[in-house]
Amino acid sequence: MSENDFELVEGSGNVFRDLGDPDADLKQAKAILAARIIAALDERGLSVRRAGALTRFAAADFSRIRNADLGRFTLDRLMKMLASLDNDLRVTLHVNARHEDEVAMAK
């Protein structure tokens, strides 16, 4: 195969949307918060047990986040966990109206 046999397609910035997941935006938001929680743990050198003791969230929850097992978490729980690790937390949410063709595809 030569280099000319491939088509380069630019992603949307949300891999879940690019793969056609109906909950793409929610999953992307959870993944971003989980990544920030992991970064906070790493920056502070915290084990999941120590993070659990400091924050009163279960160590198992931090373990699930480290393993990207985010199905049990709501956005607000992830935000609370991150806030318990990072006192300077600022979360900004941008909501864009869907285009009519996207709404039709979702139905």
Output the keywords.
single chain, 107 residues, mainly alpha, 434 Repressor (Amino-terminal Domain), 6 helices, elongated
Give a written overview of the molecule.
55% of the residues lie in helices and 0% in strands. The protein has 107 residues and is mostly helical. It has a single domain, classed as Orthogonal Bundle (434 Repressor (Amino-terminal Domain)).
Q: What would a concise description of this structure say?
A:
The protein is mainly alpha-helical and 107 residues long. It has 6 helices and no strands.
Count the beta strands. 0
Broad CATH class: Mainly Alpha
Average pLDDT, to the nearest integer? 86
- The fold-level CATH name is 434 Repressor (Amino-terminal Domain)
Assembly level: single chain
Classify the secondary structure makeup into a structural class.
mainly alpha
Determine the CATH superfamily: lambda repressor-like DNA-binding domains
Estimate the strand proportion.
under 5%
Q: Distance N terminus to C terminus?
A: 39 Å
Q: Can you summarize the main beta sheet?
A: none
Computed Rg: 18 Å
Helix content: 55-70%
H and E string: HHHHHH
How many domains? The number is 1
Counting H and I runs of at least 4 residues, what is the number of helices? 6
Topology:
Layout: H1 15-18, H2 24-44, H3 48-55, H4 59-66, H5 75-85, H6 100-106
Helix pairs in contact: 2-5, 3-4
